[in-house]
């Protein structure tokens, strides 16, 4: 946890409790993995998904809520997210995550495989605790599957020279938007909000997730290592062709083909040159415009929610998060 | 599936249906992974866990059973087993499994990570389908966790020169016996057997699992590549010190220390020499005697089950499986 939440004291308190529960949940007899997991929990992730969950819970009916249940569901969401991060870092061979060494880089791929698996079981245990007998068990299983299929889509389209917006959005919808959407829906549902609010929450979460991912992908082309806390142009070098590149490529496919044909053999200089072309052809600006339109859809839906502090804070967070410029 | 089940026509039919369901369940848009999973399903694994599940279901009350539910639960058990196999092969760097190339060897570790994850989600989906609202959701989450902790224990004690029987049994209890035990219990429970039969099933499954693993570990010291369908002395070379070695070491620790001190650097010749000492010091025979005692415990408990075809077949299978000499 970091100081991102200082303007949101209620959420900050709830996220602290969520982290405490995660820390408790990952206690196992293998101390190496336990330490790695506690470090990951506290390594400065924003806990956005649990935060959106709690904001939507605020919009619901306090009388219908069980505090402990909400904390457990929030933890289940973050734990599922952590599991996918740990396994993604294996695929990406990532040295850094959230500014610290990844589990696969520090302890090796073997430990990373089991660490991710262990997180899946913790996720599963929390669901068995909180939603046994509810439809949401199925919704979670489906979300987990779509999330994973989104990751597989991304892996499958690596170094795809004619990557389309459709390919990109299909992957983003699964790997990112699915869990944001589920977080918002679960917040509304377990917070006791109406069916209409739950319907809106699902859509708002999806749009926030897509916009969030697009901004995140833009960072690969705009940030420096220090702010991003991971290598810049990492996606490009790894063959993950994201929206800025796709939008720029559509304007001048031929200019990119010589570089992209190199696939994994692209040099740092060629990657830098490619990124330069992405900027020249307005790929970054167009991607920002795209993200802004999607954010606007979310904000329009948020506007339809019943007036309350939760709604105000949700608006504030969405604007803060999706109009960042770092 | 192979012809192992030809003496058990009812079970064979149920296992065929289970495989069909698994095949249906793993249909995804990523054809590469789908193919890998279908191959794994049909690559000649004996489907022992679902088989024990069905045998215990036979002991129950047919009036209380739902055929489709039983097939789904059997599939969930095998799918969880497959998930752990796929991830274990990453850790072990195994080239072969069930006589065919492992997923990690054929498609790389990256695909293997996601393939295992996908199997975890299929497992989870099947549970959401069949036991939502039941205590068994929790039991499955716990079993999955203990299974994984068993794997972690094994990884943690690799190349441990003073490996004890306690270390060994703790790992085996988790990584193997847990799922055998759950399979038998679920068969008894969802087959409509009494509480007493369920209690016996849990214990029988645990003993069968332990004996099965001990025999499996013995094979590493006795089989040739052709029958074993995977490299011989693989465990030893990988630092997985199993019961035959542990029992032999207890008799003459000094004789082993020079070889085991080499850890991962042990040569093929040294591994062969170590195996020879294991035989000389009766490690294999003592391990067999141990497995036989554990098998006997299972058979004694099976004897207490109500008389029926299921009980006869269970006795036959246990004897057939745990007195194999290949």
How is this structure best summarized?
Chains A, B: Keywords: Magnesium, Metal-binding, Transferase. The structure is a homodimer. By secondary structure, chain A is mainly alpha-helical.
Observed structural traits:
Farnesyl Diphosphate Synthase; two-stranded antiparallel ribbon; globular; 326 residues; 2 strands; 74% helix
Instruction: Supply the CATH class of chain A.
Output: Mainly Alpha
Domain module count of chain A: 1
Topology, number of strands of chain A? 2
Helix count of chain A equals 16
CATH architectural arrangement of chain A: Orthogonal Bundle
- Name the chain pair whose interface involves the most residues: A-B, 41 and 41 residues
Physical arrangement of strands within the biggest beta sheet of chain A: 1-2
Instruction: State the distance separating the first and last CA atoms of chain A.
Output: 19 Å
The helix/strand order of chain A is HHHHEEHHHHHHHHHHHH
- In percent terms, what proportion of residues of chain A is strand? under 5%
Return residue spans of chain A where pLDDT drops below 50 for at least 5 consecutive residues: none
GO biological process, one term (chains A, B): isoprenoid biosynthetic process
InterPro entries (chains A, B): Isoprenoid_synthase_dom_sf, Polyprenyl_synt, Polyprenyl_synt_CS
Keywords (chains A, B): Magnesium, Metal-binding, Transferase
Protein name (chains A, B): Heptaprenyl diphosphate synthase, component II
């Amino acid at each position: 946890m970091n100081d991102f939440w200082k303007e949101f004291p209620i959420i900050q308190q709830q996220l602290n409790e969520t982290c405490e529960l995660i820390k408790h949940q990952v206690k196992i007899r293998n101390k190496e993995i336990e330490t790695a997991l506690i470090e990951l929990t506290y390594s400065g992730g924003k806990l956005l998904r649990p935060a959106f969950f709690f904001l939507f819970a605020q919009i619901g009916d306090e009388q219908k809520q069980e505090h402990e249940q909400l904390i457990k569901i929030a933890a289940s969401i973050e734990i599922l997210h952590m599991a996918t991060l740990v396994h993604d870092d294996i695929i990406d061979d990532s040295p850094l995550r959230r500014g610290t060494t990844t589990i696969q880089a520090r302890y090796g791929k073997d430990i990373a495989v089991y660490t991710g698996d262990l997180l899946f079981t913790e996720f599963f245990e929390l669901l068995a605790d909180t939603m046994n007998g509810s439809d949401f068990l199925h919704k979670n299983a489906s979300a987990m599957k779509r999330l994973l299929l989104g990751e597989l889509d991304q892996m499958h389209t690596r170094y795809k020279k004619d990557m389309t917006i459709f390919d990109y959005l299909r992957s983003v919808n699964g790997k990112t938007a699915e869990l944001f959407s589920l977080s918002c829906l679960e917040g509304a549902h377990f917070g006791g909000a109406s069916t209409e609010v739950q319907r809106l929450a699902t859509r708002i979460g999806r749009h926030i997730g897509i916009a969030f991912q697009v901004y995140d992908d833009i960072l690969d082309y705009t940030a420096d290592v220090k702010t991003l806390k991971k290598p810049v142009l990492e996606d490009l070098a790894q063959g993950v062709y994201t929206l800025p590149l796709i939008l720029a490529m559509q304007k001048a496919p031929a200019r990119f083909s010589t570089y992209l044909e190199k696939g994994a053999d692209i040099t740092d200089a060629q990657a830098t040159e490619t990124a330069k072309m992405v900027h020249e052809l307005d790929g970054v600006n167009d991607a920002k415009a795209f993200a802004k339109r999607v954010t606007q859809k979310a904000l329009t839906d948020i506007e339809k929610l019943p007036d309350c502090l939760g709604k105000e804070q949700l608006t504030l967070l969405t604007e803060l998060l999706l109009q960042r410029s770092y």
